[in-house]
Amino acid sequence: MRASQFLIATIKETPADAEVISHQLMLRAGMIRKLATGLYSWLPLGLRVLRKVETIVREEMDRSGAQEVMMPVVQPAELWEESGRWEQYGPELLRISDRHSRSFCLGPTHEEVITDLIRNEIKSYKQLPANFYQVQTKFRDEIRPRFGVMRSREFVMKDAYSFHKNQESLQETYDVMHATYTNIFTRLGLDFRPVIADTGSIGGSGSHEFHVLANSGEDDIAFSDTSNYAANVEMAEALAPAGERPSATEAMEKVATPDVHSIEEVSQFFSCAADRSLKTLIVYGVQEEGQSKAPLVALVVRGDHELNDIKAEKLGGIAKPMTFASEEDIKAAIGCGTGSIGPVGLSIRTIVDRSATHAADFICGANEDGYHLKGVNWERDLALGEIADIRNVVEGDPSPDGEGKILIRRGIEVGHIFQLGTKYSEAMNATVLNENGKEQVMIMGCYGIGVTRVVASAIEQNNDDKGIIWPDSIAPFQVAIVGMNMQKSDRVREKAEQLYTELKALGLDVLLDDRNERPGVKFADMELMGIPHRIVVGDRGLDQGMLEYKHRRATDSEDIPVEQIVAEVSKRVSR
Amino acid sequence: MRASQFLIATIKETPADAEVISHQLMLRAGMIRKLATGLYSWLPLGLRVLRKVETIVREEMDRSGAQEVMMPVVQPAELWEESGRWEQYGPELLRISDRHSRSFCLGPTHEEVITDLIRNEIKSYKQLPANFYQVQTKFRDEIRPRFGVMRSREFVMKDAYSFHKNQESLQETYDVMHATYTNIFTRLGLDFRPVIADTGSIGGSGSHEFHVLANSGEDDIAFSDTSNYAANVEMAEALAPAGERPSATEAMEKVATPDVHSIEEVSQFFSCAADRSLKTLIVYGVQEEGQSKAPLVALVVRGDHELNDIKAEKLGGIAKPMTFASEEDIKAAIGCGTGSIGPVGLSIRTIVDRSATHAADFICGANEDGYHLKGVNWERDLALGEIADIRNVVEGDPSPDGEGKILIRRGIEVGHIFQLGTKYSEAMNATVLNENGKEQVMIMGCYGIGVTRVVASAIEQNNDDKGIIWPDSIAPFQVAIVGMNMQKSDRVREKAEQLYTELKALGLDVLLDDRNERPGVKFADMELMGIPHRIVVGDRGLDQGMLEYKHRRATDSEDIPVEQIVAEVSKRVSR
């Protein structure tokens, strides 16, 4: 492409209403423009990237054996009523009426439509498994769209839905999709993690989110520094420190601690680190029939750890959502305030976090206002009782798979694979005849990639103060050729044109900056637009038979002999 | 692709609610499924065709220098208010409200959005001309969607919009688009005509529609049997017959013709063909100030010709829309009823069609109830007066470009190129600075292709009683390999697999029908689905070193030696 024939719409100033770097750079580089809140037009530069992402996604989905379909953006209300979501789904579902006052919605997702389609097309277990995907425009009427295409209202998604006769088959396809997504994000050139995710209220038995690691991410991801293990912080299993619990060295002692309640106050009073004390949190249990009120449950975690309510709720016997007991109920049951509770001599159900069981000579509340105990030791001063994982992981924890230590980084969710089970197929009566000639509800999986979001997240991960730095696989152009003084020097113009022709012939995406602009303007534009490989053609270099090459990430340029440049650049572009 | 891993969803019965053949065959072949009125899901087979059409359209648009963009499906009302179309556009424009009660519509077209985008991005005449296109989902809330994807509510369109500093530049791009569309429809393998079209009420000065010729088309296309000339029947210029007008041979004579009014009655009464008489139609002229009523105008055409009201209206002085005078007004002005009018001695403005001026010894009304004149001759019995083209062309007319004769066929409009002029850029103040540093409104063109409709129209043009017959360029699969008794014969299975691998390696789209079905079922499915090239692998043929090849259009199959089949089939697939 010649820059003179391409809409280069770079902007010098950082747009005021763009909060995150990808939004700023997509506007500044001329990739997108806002049409209305949460609605963006893609300019030629941006669309080139979007199409490359789409192509990689399609190639890998096809390779996985999934079949591409295309379902309408506009969906009839009837199907959503069948699944129950017409009522359940919040105002993000944009409900509309056609000229005959029939109800439709703009599809934020296509479970209902695909389930309807497949229940009519697939009648026998012999046709299973089958996996269908589409790359389609979707709409979610976000209350506060923001961050540009990262959280827009209209967006492009790749969504896939698989159908199975049993759980084993679903697991097989799920594993294939896990591998496919790994291939896709690897080819996209992104630093990502497949992350064990909560299946949440939707049910189902397996779910991974694929996160691009970036400081601006909205989720905390815990992952091993050596293995592939990764999980949402809320989901990551927290292990006890390695090795045996240290032996007791102190005697238990009751200490008057006036005005000492929080862990910070305890640490300060006793001049010790937070991990030397245990905190005991009191929540409500499940009220049994005949009980006048809900029982209380004590949850014990180390002073430097945080209670994880999802994990606690899953243990059973704890009220959902998990709720801290009132000061009044605690006083009545235990006889002291929240700041003085400890596990020693506690008569209610007590659950101790794994790491807390490794503490020795620890400090805790004495169950008496104004007093703490120090030098406390498990199995000497109190029984261990019920032990469970009830805390969030922290950096440095051992990885649950036994390999390496936990790191925690921010991630942007760009993909999600999910074992749906029979949620939709049961509600919509999507059945097949099984081996015995009986009707059986199909089991489903679903697999999404936020295609437009991938573009933004790639920028979040790859930028510097000059602009975007594209991975070669999705760069709008892989190579930029900048001619110095091209309008006046025939030699420069001819060499630039020749390189342009030769590099294109090798299948590279090349932008020849033939604009009548100062070199500084051209350099700044190419850097802002993130073209990874740049060749400068100038009279001075040609005098010495050299051309200047610079990778977008390199600090300095290199001189490469004219006759080697095409082969050399071609070699450096990863394909 | 292996048929066992592909959703083959063929249907034997013709669906009851599908009126046209393409709709029937798209359902029967398993290309599409109806989701709701005017909304269709594309199954894998159909989508393969749609994507091939899109690819050809994109490649040719890119080659033309147009730049691809993507604008949202959902568009804000404000822009449509600026252009005036929020009020003007009928209920086909689906108007919706978001959660904040702001008004939007589902875009049926994108003139407003692109004009808004470009007025912000292009500031100088130096950036012109520029042509932007997208391939995007559009929505028109048709009152009566029908014919499947031929007239659906949600559809895929390629729309392009060009911007210019002057009319010459628009004309240049318009000509490039004309050539580009010709390339596109040629590559799609369709029999089509670029047709001179009416610019209608939208204004503008140039327009061509691209029609696929098919009996089920909704438009009548007049085109030359030897040259490229083609036009909508309403637009096609009607010439007089070639040569001089025959000489008069009869004397003018007044004949009593009781109860003879229509041309049919005249022909019967005088035992002559309809082209021997002239009919005179009386319409209202434009009422001038001071006139108590509108004047009458006589329009004279040959008995076998039809008046064209669009042409008549364009002459000036005739009321728009053209309206036939009442019996009462005619009686008052001429003294007879409509069935007895003729041009001889008529005192009102009289416009004579070119072909009517070539009649000799003709019959016409005598301007006296119950009488006709016969043996009438121009310039002897009456003056020629005002001559114009005021009739529809008919088959056999000389082509207006002087080459060949006119044929008339039905056409399906699949593309439209249009010189918009300043309709949108003026309303929306889309200006650039011109050479003199002054603001100047841009001139625009627009260029559309109904991508989903192309698929249906290709079927309308290419089918037989067994199903679809795809052109090679857009066939979902170019080659089908059918193994006879594949499950039992190792030899057949191995040969079929080998051919499959070898043909795929040559870049062909191959469907290996490896299903455990009877040969008859497989043949019927492959024919219904329209795969153009079929190879049958069977034990009997292999015994003789032969494979059976059949083109979908051929009546009989041919035997081709095993060792030649790959090269031979590859040669026959046009690429």
TrEMBL record, chains A, B:
Known role:
Catalyzes the attachment of proline to tRNA(Pro) in a two-step reaction: proline is first activated by ATP to form Pro-AMP and then transferred to the acceptor end of tRNA(Pro). As ProRS can inadvertently accommodate and process non-cognate amino acids such as alanine and cysteine, to avoid such errors it has two additional distinct editing activities against alanine. One activity is designated as 'pretransfer' editing and involves the tRNA(Pro)-independent hydrolysis of activated Ala-AMP.
Protein name as annotated: Proline--tRNA ligase
Q: What is its EC number?
A: 6.1.1.15
The yes or no answer to whether the keyword Ligase is present is yes
Q: How does it assemble?
A: Homodimer.
Keyword check for Protease, yes or no. no
GO cellular component terms, semicolon-separated: cytosol
Description of its domains: Consists of three domains: the N-terminal catalytic domain, the editing domain and the C-terminal anticodon-binding domain.
Keywords of the record: Aminoacyl-tRNA synthetase, ATP-binding, Cytoplasm, Ligase, Nucleotide-binding, Protein biosynthesis
Any idea which GO molecular function terms this record carries?
aminoacyl-tRNA deacylase activity; ATP binding; proline-tRNA ligase activity
Instruction: Return the Pfam families for the record.
Output: HGTP_anticodon (PF03129), tRNA-synt_2b (PF00587), tRNA_edit (PF04073)
The family this protein is said to belong to: Belongs to the class-II aminoacyl-tRNA synthetase family. ProS type 1 subfamily.
- Please name the source species: Spongiibacter pelagi
Q: Which reactions appear under catalytic activity for this entry?
A: tRNA(Pro) + L-proline + ATP = L-prolyl-tRNA(Pro) + AMP + diphosphate
Q: Where found in the cell?
A: Cytoplasm
Aminoacyl-transfer RNA synthetases class-II family profile domain segment(s): 38-471
Q: Name one GO biological process term.
A: prolyl-tRNA aminoacylation
